[in-house]
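Quick one: structure for this chain?
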Amino acid sequence: MGLLDILLGRTKPVVPDLDQLFGLPSAAVTLEAAAGFRPTGSGAVCFATVEGAAFEQTHREVQALLDADAGREGRPVRLTRDGYGYSWLVSERTPNQLPELVNDLHAVNSAMEVNGFGPQLLCSLAGFEDDEGRRLTLVYLYKRGTFYPFAPLPGAAERRDNSLELRMKAVLADDLRIEQDLTRWFPVWGAPGL
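Got it. Here's what it folds into:
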């Protein structure tokens, strides 16, 4: 980055670091100890829908790879589309299989990236729940290489628990690279699998 870039306010884009996903299992231990949130076993990767044979081939290869895992216990990976036109590859595991779920999320992101579809990747999600039925989702922003907590209020239509999200930001600061710009903490209402 040169002096002219600095003067004009241009910044260098953050390089995605998919290995950040492997911090989720240690973050899960912290979440359970500090706040009572445990993994649900659900996760998803969101990407802009792409048409074409190359994308379809990549999707089929990723889905076949993940479905071939013997530990899936009859829970196939599924592809869905939301009301905004984004595609979601949803993986369901048992709650005690968070490391395997993280491997699924990493494999999907890596395959998309390697096959030239990295710019279409938006985020990856992992779900958590406490004994009171409160839901918490850790959202990994692909283009930023950071996480943020998303906590929808139970029984409320599109309202979130901002105080819980901020508390979880502080709790997870040592485990995950947390997104500091709160304006990038986008709600993921109705995300498939969560």
